[in-house]
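Shall we go through a protein fold together, starting from nothing but its sequence? Please make up or recall a protein chain and show it to me in full. Go ahead whenever you are ready, and we will take it from there.
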Amino acid sequence: MLPLPGIAIYNHQQAIPLSDELIELFESAAVLALPHILEVATGPGSSLAQLDEVEVSLVDDETIADVHLRFMDIPGATDVITFDHGEIHVSVETASSQGQEFGNAFEREIMLYIIHGLLHLAGHEDATDSGQAAMDYHQQDILEKVWQ
């Protein structure tokens, strides 16, 4: 079995205060999620299996909207953007609003986005209905295993 990549989570926003303890909790849960995510990887060539480290940046809507436009040519904020080289951007402001809309605690919604990004690195895509359904299933299943 290949060694698991490290996970580093950085708070690069000031819109919503996050404690160091919460960041450490996200990191611990992400490390626990990695074996489950690798179990459902879509192939041995997934970038997650090749990485030494995954960097998760917690950002505000303005920052993620900028990344969304510059790299995907799509205007506006989104929840999570994943790059194959092991970089995941998560919008805490979107997590706050979407969490309220879907009845999830803010922290749980952020963890869901982190898992979503890791699943993308494991080769999952959500551009089709079947791909989105598979990702939804796996992220909820893994979230239940690592986040209470």
